[in-house]
Amino acid sequence: MFRVLGNTVVRYWQVFLVFWILAVAGVSYVAPEWSSVVQNGEFAFMPADSPSLQGEKLFKRAFPDDLLASSIVLVVRREHGDQGLRPKDLKFIEDTLKPRLEEIAEEQGGFATERKDNNSQTLTSNISRIRTYTDKSIGDLLQSEDNKASLVIVELSTEFLDQSNAQTVESIENLIQNDEVFKQTIEPGLDISLSGIATVGRDMIRAANQSAEATELWTVLLVILLLIIIYRAPILALIPLFTVFVSVQIALSVLAILGDWGWVGLFSGIEVYVTVILYGAGVDYCLFLIARHREELEKECTFKEAISNSIATVGAALAASAGTTMCGIGMMVFAQFGKFQQAGVAMALSLSFVLMASLTLTPALLCLAGRFAYWPQSFNERVAISAGWLTPSSVMARLMQRNWAGSVWETVSQGLLKNPGKIWLSTFLVLFPFALISLACYGNLSYGLLSELPSEDPSVIGTKAVQGHYPAGATGPLTLLFENPDINFSDAEGRDAIEKLTASLLDQKDELGIADIRNMTKPFGIGAADEMEKARNLTGLKKIGALSRIKLIKNYYVSSEPELEHHVTRMDLILEKDPFSHDSMKQLERVKTAVNKGLPDKLKGNTDLYYIGATASISDLKNVTDQDQARIDVLVLASVFIILVILLRRPAISAYLIVSVFFSYLVTLGITFAVFWALDPQNFAGLDWKVPMFLFTILIAVGEDYNIYLITRIDEEQKRLDPVEGVISALKSTGGIISSCGIIMAGTFSSLMAGTLVGMQQLGFALAFGVLLDTFIIRPIIVPAYLIMLYRGYFGSWGKYLGAAQFLETKPRPELDTSHTK
To answer: Domain named SSD: which ranges (predicted)?
Structure first.
């Protein structure tokens, strides 16, 4: 098949070239804007039956006026002096700051409103409400105990990672930072900082976009630089680059079209993963094809004959390699977390375009370049490996003629022939401690959002300002939602049940890390006086006003909606830990245990209890992704193993290849843990939670690519040489090209480190190191050393079960040992 393809491409190369140019122009023209087809958010990608999402659905039905979406928090504070905030400061908040915020809402179309008559929602701006210290329901909670800070809450109707929030956050940011008229109204010594989960989301999206742009730029620059260094021929270096560029543009355009049709889902940021994997894999495919082309030219073939022969000889290996990667990465479609599913589909689908381009567009470009492709190394029809246009006596010519990579792998090959067992064991012992580190630290992952952002981002600065005057958990309270159709939470029975649970939690307040509890019995927290008791001591209009306020507060904590009226209540826990910290999830588990034990008998019968808020959502995210990690690990290993068995027809050797790459993954993960801990021991909260999944899937799939290249070449060499010589010959033939591919792919992956998101930096480092480890240690040492020991009969009678039966039967060990010691 690939022989026919090679002949066809060489004969009609102009047609293939025009086809690809028209294809990239056509799909780019019809594809919609990328931003219009991607979905934002994080928790929205969790399964619909996640407990926190179920709780949020109930909350929206029970408390529709509290949209439970996201918010922008302005921290107004006066740090210096013992008096704290002055009356003028509070007047400024109510008479100046709040009206200006209302103006921003009006400029964006007015406050977000909800129309219930037809169950549809009509939104203007995404600002739904502005709360200050004068708010009748929660105003008192916005004042800090030290009276040095007051919060202004701008509640939004959108999720915290919704891109539409950016305009609102930036408008408020411009107001407090750049509006000179407004700044003149601020009292001297008064500071305003921006915080809130929506601000965090805006900074996350901005950092992700900046990372995407930086990654794409550095990917191209690094690929160009590495290709020129490796090939020493600028025109030849441009051929893989153009091939991959076309593939990426077509892949992203096709994904945008499919996303617009609703056939695939796309999350914001997925283009970074697609771009990086296509540049890494695509350049590798082109490198192998061009390397074989050079080999064919040395056999006295014409330029076009060499192209046809190259496709015929390596086409199957490239297709098998791409198929292995596509299948391995495609296993992510079985994940429950939506982003993993979408990444698996997008990357697997995109790899098909770069494979087709490598087998058709790259040869067409070689035909177009002709004898100029290898300039300045040659200027002849039958290209020789020489300096070509350069003077033979020049330093550059002598450097070009020297086969540095070949001499390195010649030395490695001789070492493996002499002491395969010692080299294998010593290499394993050096790497094994890092594999143990990865196993020991495997669960030490960070789910924090703020830990991903640079310390100078507004949301990080603002959060620190909040935590300077309020409990760390104030930025994201943990809400307990109780639903019981048999209990009226507005009467004495329901009130008594909540009071008993509150008392139980207060008894364990320090152990549970609870800073405050707010519910219908303690609407302003555990330190505030009882509102009903205060109302009883009042008379006249003051008493009426106090009772009206109590009723309003009760509606805040007990649902008044039809069907759920009086049967749903909420309890807000303010925890001492940052809701995005790693420890907050452990704290949540302790709270859950305490709530279950302290739940009164009246609430145990028919009560549905939900936990909602940032900590609860992150906990659900962790549970889902942990399950996905275990499931995808098994599926990827199994699928790649099956493909290897089909391709190689050697189950035992295929199993060893799988184990070797899995070992490489563990070592890489351990190294990554060690490096990022060493960079910042005090603040290291663990690797970002996405790193193990993407690292495992990509590294296993890509790592087996190199094994396929090596093993297929070993099979080819063993047809004319004895088993051990076949291994050595294949190592020498593929060593340089696989190492070059590894450097290119590692350089591509390292471009992920150009962004500001810590998670992307960690993933970029891990992928780059893992590829280098695989191409310089695992593939050229761990695998060949094992095969040499196997074919020499080092494993005795077990050798026939480990994949060397045919060789051991025809060539006993002494004969092999003698042949290699001469």
So the answer is: 236-368
